Amino acid sequence: MMSAASRQWVMVGVLACAVSACDRAPQQPAAPAPAAVEAAPTVPAAPPPATAPEDVVETTSDYVLGISYPGDAGRYPGLLAELRRYADGARGELLAAVADRKAQPGAPMYDLTLGFTKVSDSPSIVVIAADGSTFTGGEQSRPLLARFVWLVKENRLLTAAELVPDAASWNTISGEVRRQLHMALAQRVDADGLAVVERKAVLQRAGALIDAGTQPKPDSFASYEPVLTRDGKIGALRFVFPPYQVGSYADGTQTVQLSADVLLPHIAPRYRPMFAGTTG
To answer: What are the boundaries of the signal sequence (predicted)?
Structure first.
């Protein structure tokens, strides 16, 4: 997610000139003391190499848990702290569910699987994906999904709300994302070769999920990935939706990518130089 350099000062002694008093001749003026030697500028010690975060594996009679981190995530301690905070939250929910479950013969074991992987790594932006699932009863596991966009120079996360601060802009972004998701839905349904009446019913049900999961507000688009060009600029944003947000569990994770030219009018002025098609 350091030892401070010791500082050393150079002390310079002043040499006194001895004057002979044996005769009555005028005393010669003493030679000027040599100028003090300036201390060399202090160079901070290089920080110790980043410690690779340790993966977590826990196995008990009630649950099994596995959490893995990128090997070099320790380069940015602040980012690593955010990843651990997310992992600790997921682990805490699992342990709470284990504590609440009453002993049941033959009850299925609870589990948590979470992996952090690097999506992008540039001098200005690092993007980490968190993907996994947790099972605490029921028919299916609950998906875990998050994205962490780290501004290297500012040493902090960049949220969707900061990137697009104007509420009206989310109407435009939401509309374009919905258009692409509805188009992809229609293509999947057509591939199934459903009858007309059944096709209409499926489109209505699934379309309602899309509209509910893409409300024009930052929380609907919190998981996003900057897509970087070769020169390190942001050429597009890829919005990532876990199962259940814009579709059924069977639909899996879905993504929609919007190009920089579509997004740029809606991006906060301070972040626009990070996007392709701008200077800075």
So the answer is: 1-21
